């Protein structure tokens, strides 16, 4: 069969389900390619995937006998999960020309934050879903998409797999600093870290206390310790600015995430531009100074 793939998001991350679908179909002798509405001939099946709800659907005619849409971007009810035989496939990284390994060691999160659908989508318990070798074969960099790996009871064995890989590790979705312990810090310090992301989503002093407590124990430059700061959700601008300043004092690297950006006021968007542009962030010490230079 001729198989077409459409990645609607086209983000910095390759779409893992599409890579697994590509592997599966190639393994049974099908041909696979990204679908082009202008140049592709009729396909037997075209898979359309998106992760983000705000990503627009495909606006062109899809010439195929069967069109299958899936991904959390279509809503939990319409997610259209992969069959088990596809889910267990090693991703086809050649599809995107990727030299990195991407995947989940765990799924689920106990936090159930009101602005996030992970708990509703993946469950309220962080649980192991794979070993590292199921999506990694000696690539120099591993990009992890786990929502809360530190809450998983198997965290130590999985951390040891990452240590043993000797690959560069990028925790993209955030480690839960509230789940941090001395033992976990010790294991993380043994990894080759490219980037760790934490999150300070709400004005919660317990998060600050944990960030402060463990900062001196991480053996990494602050530029490798990034903290997502959610704004325009349920905090005041003063609270947003306070979190940003405190992170600077602790030598973490804040990264502002705007909730419902189209409805955010100008000052919030200015804050994001200042903090997230790391050239400006490192030469302009305060938001007031940044506004004065504009």
> Sheet bearing the most strands, described?
6 strands, parallel
Low-pLDDT stretches are none
- Helix fraction by DSSP (H/I, runs of at least 4): 25-40%
Number of distinct beta strands:
12
Structural shape: globular
Taking all Cα atoms into account, the compactness measure Rg is 21 Å
Strand residue percentage: 15-25%
Structural class: alpha/beta
In what order do the strands lie side by side in the largest sheet? 5-8-9-10-11-12
On the 0-100 scale, what is the average pLDDT? 94
In whole angstroms, the N-to-C terminal distance is 57 Å
Number of helices: 10
In sequence order, what are the helices and strands, one letter per element?
Answer: EHEEEHEEHEEHEHEHEHEHHH
Task: Report what the structure shows.
The strands form 3 sheets. This protein has a 6-stranded parallel beta sheet with strand order 5-8-9-10-11-12. The protein has a 4-stranded parallel beta sheet with strand order 2-1-3-4, with helices on one face. The chain has a domain at 1-96. With 294 residues, it is an alpha/beta fold. Helix content is 30%, strand content 20%. Helix 6 runs parallel beside helix 7 (237-250). The termini are far apart.
Structural descriptors:
alpha/beta; globular; 30% helix; single chain; 6-stranded parallel beta sheet; 294 residues; 10 helices; 4-stranded parallel beta sheet; 12 strands
